[in-house]
């Protein structure tokens, strides 16, 4: 068969993975969030070196994609510290609410890459965080499918 009709692989046999989507929102992070980004970049650097030595093309492609993402997040990170004595819910603060059914929940408002709702952190762009931001103790806000009273801010 003639090679004239065979498409050459211009990636050198390495699969090119699509980039991870980057949020259109400002990349606001806590000081802890910035440290986590830097740890992630250091770990990826170590993994990249190991994959290069092992000549693991698939791993290199995945690591390169993650390095692009975390490098972009590091370059755009805007560190914001929590207020010292918050009177209202803001980025970096911890807020405790009591829902209509008496469930008590506490979250810290953090950057998008830091958010782990099951671990008690919410992204500042999440609907619940947006509903709570700017509110004070005693205020009621719509948090998900129910109303909730803010009982503590720290």
Task: Please tag this protein with its features.
single chain, 154 residues, alpha/beta, Chitinase A, domain 3, five-stranded mixed β-sheet, two-stranded parallel ribbon, 3 helices, 32% helix
Concise description?
With 154 residues, the chain is α/β, with parallel strands linked by helices. 32% of the residues lie in helices and 21% in strands. The chain folds into two domains: 16-79; 94-153, Transcription elongation factor, GreA/GreB, C-terminal domain (Chitinase A, domain 3, Roll), CATH 3.10.50.
Q: Which strand order spans the largest sheet, edge to edge or round the barrel?
A: 5-4-3-7-6
Largest sheet: 5 strands, mixed
The assigned structural class equals alpha/beta
Shape: elongated
Q: Tally the beta strands.
A: 7
Low-confidence stretches: 1-11
Portion of residues in beta strands equals 15-25%
Helix proportion range: 25-40%
Give the H and E element order: EHHEEEEHEE
The oligomeric state is single chain
Domain module tally: 2
Taking the alpha carbons of the first and last residues, their distance comes to 72 Å
CA-atom Rg in angstroms: 22 Å
The overall pLDDT average reads: 90
Supply the number of helical segments: 3
């Amino acid at each position: 068969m003639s090679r004239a009709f065979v498409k050459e692989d211009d990636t050198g046999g390495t699969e090119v993975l699509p980039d991870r989507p980057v949020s259109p929102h400002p990349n606001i992070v806590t000081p802890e969030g910035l440290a986590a980004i830097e740890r992630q970049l250091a770990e990826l650097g170590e993994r990249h070196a190991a994959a290069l030595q092992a000549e693991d093309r698939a791993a290199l492609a995945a690591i390169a994609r993650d390095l692009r993402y975390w490098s972009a997040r590091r370059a755009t990170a805007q560190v914001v510290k929590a207020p010292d004595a918050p009177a209202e819910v803001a980025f970096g603060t911890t807020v405790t609410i009591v829902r209509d059914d008496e469930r008590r929940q506490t979250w810290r408002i953090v950057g998008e890459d830091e958010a782990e709702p099951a671990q008690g952190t919410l992204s500042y762009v999440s609907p619940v965080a947006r509903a709570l931001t700017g509110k004070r103790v005693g205020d009621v806000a719509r948090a998900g499918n129910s109303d909730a009273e803010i009982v503590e801010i720290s």
